[in-house]
Amino acid sequence: MPHWTDGPESILAPTSIDAFMDVHWDGVPLIVQNRGADLYRDLLSIDALDALIHGSGWQVPTFRLVKEGNQIPHEHYTVDGIPWGTGSVSGFMEREHIRQFMRDGATFVMESCQRIHPSIGHLSRLFEQTFNCPSAVNLYVTPPAAQGFQPHFDVQNVFVLQLHGSKQWKVYGPHIEHPLPSQAIDGAVPPGPLLHDVTLHPGDLLYLPRGYVHVAHTTEELSAHLSVSMLPTTWADVFKELIQTLPHDARFRSSVPLHPKGPAEASEAMESTFEELMTAFQSGSDLEDALDGMARRFVATRLPATSGQLHTLADATPISLNSTLKRHPDIVWRVESDGEQAHLHFHGKTTSVPWTAIQALRIIAEGEPFTVSNIPGELSDDIRCQLAQHLFDEGFLVRC
Fold first, then answer.
1. How far apart are CA 344 and CA 351, in angstroms?
2. DSSP labels for 236-280?
3. Tens-place pLDDT, residues 173-200
């Protein structure tokens, strides 16, 4: 039976990943229904949801309340100056006020849940591993017959996973095609032509590419859904990356005269210099170098996958040639070579070996279980054990 732990391939089914990328990723919305609530089983049960909101003490800005597009000032549902050890904390959730606002129709929003909830963190990593871009997951809990937001659009691609209850969504044409974060609009926007009017039930999926205007309200039952946001890399990002190399060329550091009183008048010499610099920019820019740099930053800035580390600390048995290991499933990684050494990047860390052992790093990182004695390459048995022990201690590898 399909389950969310199988990743986006199951969450999008019956739409394949390839078909999704071709038609929907930067294209049109997708609705998938009638798969049953078991698809999201164990992701966030109603009991776990209740405990998350009312049994835990969160501080702003990890959560907020909104009603019909208006942010409720957090001073109305938080408390300051709570004694805590040798100090005090502020902006702490006041549970009874939260409940009262929700009874009056406010939507509870918990942002970046992947940072605080293990299952949601795993969900986020599955999306990051599939689409290779940052993923933040927000939780929205809306009481019956209520509306949290006015018609608006997002600057990220959003997967809506309906966990509990039902919610009616209206999806309109895009306000801006493929908007960038700098083009976000805070507040309501006028909707365009109505494309979809759909009610989501547990197990359903709605995918909204960035820019599509949408609005939602609950039916006669409480609704809880997760929004998995994906911020894709754009050509604008690539050119920003390339522009960062310009200061290395002295010609781009030359001064340019301005005409503050206007209008601007570029001399023939300036026009000639501009054309020369544009040619230099094009000939001196390396697209693959830019993409590599952006990919390294993506890998380095992923949240560490630290589950199981206490077991590792308590495990005094050394790694041997007979040990069977595999990569921690939640890790986003990268293997590359600079011609002299091969490097394995993860969690902002780097493990390096002679470049001739790059295949060993790839075999280790691919995720399939392996026995240390079978690590390929021109490595001694001692080096095989040392490499495996190091990656085990760093949390990259776990025992099978």
1. 5
2. HHHHHHHHTTGGGSGGGGS-----TTS-----HHHHHHHHHHHHH
3. 999 999 999 999 988 999 999 999 999 9
Residue for token pair 């946001």? 229
Cis peptide before 318 (omega within 30 of 0): no
Q: How far apart are CA 111 and CA 117, in angstroms?
A: 11
**Residue count (the chain):** 400
Write down the H helix ranges in 55-172.
Answer: 95-103, 118-131
CA-to-CA separations, 273 to 269, 286, 360, in angstroms, rounded? 6, 21, 50
81 in helix, strand or coil? coil
9 close to 39: Cβ distance less than 8 angstroms: no
- φ, ψ of residue 88 in degrees (nearest 5): -150, 160
> HSE-up of 189 (CA within 13 Å, CB side)?
20
Rounded to whole angstroms, the Cα distance separating 164 from 223 reads 5
Q: Which domains does the chain have, with CATH numbers?
A: 4-230 (2.60.120.650), 236-256+265-286 (no CATH), 309-399 (3.90.930.40)
pLDDT digits (tens, 9 = 90+) for 370-382: 999 999 988 899 9
Give the HSE-up count for residue 295: Cα atoms under 13 Å, Cβ half-sphere.
Answer: 15
Q: What is the DSSP string of 336-354?
A: EE-SSEEEEEETTEEEEEE
